[in-house]
Amino acid sequence: MEGTRTATRYAKSFIDLAIEQGTLEKAYKDMKYIAEVAKGNHEFSVFLKSPLIKTDKKKEILKTIFEGRLDKMTEAYIQLITTKKREMYLAQIAEEFINQYNTKKQILKAVVTTASGIDDATRKKVHELVKGASQSEVVLEEKINKDIIGGFIIRVGDRQIDASIARKLEDLKHEFKEGSYIKKN
Questions:
Q1: Which of 63, 86, 94, 165 could form a disulfide with 150 if both were Cys (CB 3.0 to 4.6 A apart)?
Q2: 151 and 134 in one domain?
Q3: Based on the domain organization, do 79 and 118 belong to the same domain?
């Protein structure tokens, strides 16, 4: 809970600074990059959380990792976070920044989960369906989960449509347990 509040506060302060400086789009691109690095590299996350590595060394390493890849304001912000010993929340701050950016820009994130991925035609239909229901810009995130067997699950905000075969089998199993199926002679 503490990490979430910290990430929210730091992300809000950075988004406000980026708006004030007129660099919101650059900051968004940078935060997406930082989030990708954190998701794709477990060692990076361990490094950020390590109490054994001194703050000065972390600042030096972070500068080396991101130098030339991020806007100067973002680099300075990361150095500030590290100075305040909040670098362990950097990945969460980046994710929260992206969420706040999407809210400000009225961008909806739709997560589509399938057993084997979707083709371009289906992707386009899902995109149009979600966009038509919300009148907002839509960012589609695709996930693959073989456990759903087939069908799909779409999650937009706090709403979810579960049309997976696994869900249908679970519902059918529940119906049989309830005894709603009675054999007729």
A1: 165
A2: yes
A3: no
